[in-house]
């Protein structure tokens, strides 16, 4: 295996001028939008201001279907390769589904207990709601199931029907997995397509400041500055829920596996800071994998669990989808029955597999979930667009921590966790930032 030397200087990207940093641009746009909406509400309610936010949402919706197809197919196909390691793959998938379910349920429970959207004074355009409601139509249970099956694959993509795209993606992924090595070329092509689509997202997010300004200005201008309180409450509720998941749910899992979640978070603090600055958990993927190996996890487990977890174990995204869905429903005064909330769990388990660690992926999966469950709620995405940047950071931080814990737990479950390295690293008896020697000697 060719060794790779990573030095501290090489890992540091050139610092951009502050005004070119997307985080600063979006934050500035949000503040300006809130001020404009507060001081000049009539101007903020102009259709062109509204179009800024709506246009950005449309750009995101434009790429939902192809991104979900590429990521779901690629994830299933690569699981097919991972199955060569037998028990590790099965244990990883079992852990992912259990942790994802806990995250989804926690988001629903907190939203039902706190009702963060209740009292929000605004509603989306009646015409937009009516249009989505008409598109959805009245559908019985059997019709809903049959509707998942598309008349044609091309039609599913053309209409942007997420459940139909998901069904085809899952079938295609398993078919590609069965081909084995013969499907290598197709699998590589789909991986390249996924990277290209994420490149499209990278271009789209450059317009995020414009969309955030328009969405925030219109929201405050139309609904009044009191609406800001509901949005702040949603942010605080989401961060509190994510903290509960990390330090309570993952903390209990970590304690069962024999380590402290607080010490583990301290061990990966550098990677968490990288994620905080980029809002992308993928930006810290190489460093996380290296640190997990030095923590005592076997190289084979790290190589399987961490990359797979980036598609199948997105705890922060799961919390966000259920919490934000109920917030939008409460804000729009659209009651969701217990059965519909259970359906949200089931659909979100699938749509979250189409998310990646890139900026804005959680917003994409939220759109997919709303479109699949209650299409009339999709216009309500404009309510949370202005604060999605703050939500994105929390999603990425939770996703990174969740995948790190998953790798340690699966290594322990498989009997391939070096306790001496684990205790030394978490006890700060070694310098976790000195990675050059570990990489060159590994």
* CATH class type: Mainly Alpha
Query: What is the architecture at the second tier of CATH?
Result: Orthogonal Bundle
Helical coverage, percent range: over 70%
Output the radius of gyration: 22 Å
Question: What is the first-to-last residue Cα distance?
Answer: 9 Å
- Profile the largest sheet: none
Within the CATH hierarchy, at the fold level, what is the topology?
Proton glutamate symport protein
Q: What structural class do helix, strand and pairing data support?
A: mainly alpha
Strand content range = under 5%
| Total domain units | 1
**Average residue pLDDT:** 76
| Helix-strand string | HHHHHHHHHHHHHHHHHHHHHHH
Helical segment count: 23
How many E strands?
Answer: 0
* Shape by Cα distribution: globular
Describe the secondary structure blueprint for this structure.
Elements: H1 22-39, H2 41-44, H3 47-62, H4 64-82, H5 87-114, H6 126-136, H7 141-147, H8 153-159, H9 162-179, H10 184-204, H11 208-223, H12 226-257, H13 261-267, H14 269-278, H15 285-294, H16 299-312, H17 315-331, H18 338-351, H19 361-373, H20 381-385, H21 388-414, H22 419-426, H23 436-441
Helix pairs in contact: 1-11, 3-11, 4-9, 4-10, 4-16, 5-12, 5-16, 5-17, 5-18, 5-21, 12-17, 12-21, 14-21, 15-16, 15-21, 16-21, 17-19, 17-21, 18-19
């Amino acid at each position: 295996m060719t060794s790779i030397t990573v030095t501290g200087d090489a890992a540091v990207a050139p610092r951009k001028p502050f005004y070119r940093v997307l985080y600063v641009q979006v934050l500035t746009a949000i503040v300006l939008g809130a001020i404009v909406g507060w001081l000049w509400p009539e101007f903020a309610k102009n259709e062109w201001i509204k179009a800024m936010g709506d246009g950005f949402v449309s750009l995101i919706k434009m790429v939902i279907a192809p991104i979900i197809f590429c990521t779901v197919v690629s994830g299933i196909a690569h699981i097919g390769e991972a199955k060569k390691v037998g028990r590790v793959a099965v244990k990883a998938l079992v852990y992912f589904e259990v942790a994802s379910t806990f995250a989804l349920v926690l988001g629903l429970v907190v939203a039902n207990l706190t009702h963060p959207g209740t009292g929000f004074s605004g509603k989306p355009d009646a015409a937009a709601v009516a249009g989505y409601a008409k598109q959805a139509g009245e559908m019985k249970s059997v019709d809903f199931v049959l509707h998942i099956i598309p008349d044609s694959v091309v039609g599913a993509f053309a209409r942007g029907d997420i459940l139909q795209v998901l069904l085809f993606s899952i079938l295609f992924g398993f078919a590609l997995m069965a081909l084995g090595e013969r499907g290598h070329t197709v699998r590589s092509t789909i991986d390249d397509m996924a990277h290209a689509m994420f490149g499209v997202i990278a271009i789209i997010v450059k317009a995020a400041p414009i969309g955030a300004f328009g969405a925030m200005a219109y929201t405050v201008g139309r609904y009044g500055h009191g609406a800001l309180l509901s949005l702040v409450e949603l942010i605080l509720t989401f961060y509190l829920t994510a903290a509960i998941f990390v330090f309570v749910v993952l903390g209990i899992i970590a304690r069962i596996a024999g380590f402290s979640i607080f010490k583990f978070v301290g061990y990966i603090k550098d990677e968490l800071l990288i994620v905080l600055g980029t809002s992308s958990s993928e930006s810290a993927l190489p460093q996380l994998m290296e640190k997990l190996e030095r923590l005592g996890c076997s190289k084979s487990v790290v190589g399987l669990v961490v990359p797979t977890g980036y598609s199948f174990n997105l705890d922060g995204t799961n919390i966000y989808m259920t919490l934000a869905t109920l917030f939008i429903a409460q804000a729009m005064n659209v009651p969701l029955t217990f059965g519909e909330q259970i359906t949200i769990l089931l659909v979100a388990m699938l749509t979250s597999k189409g998310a990646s660690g890139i900026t804005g992926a959680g917003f994409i999966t939220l759109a997919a979930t709303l479109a699949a469950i209650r299409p009339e709620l999709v216009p309500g995405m404009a309510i949370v667009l202005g604060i999605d940047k703050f939500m994105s950071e929390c999603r990425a931080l939770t996703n990174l921590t969740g995948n790190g814990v998953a790798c340690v737990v699966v290594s322990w479950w498989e009997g391939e966790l070096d306790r001496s390295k684990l205790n030394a690293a978490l006890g700060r008896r070694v310098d976790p930032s000195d990675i050059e020697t570990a990489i060159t000697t590994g």
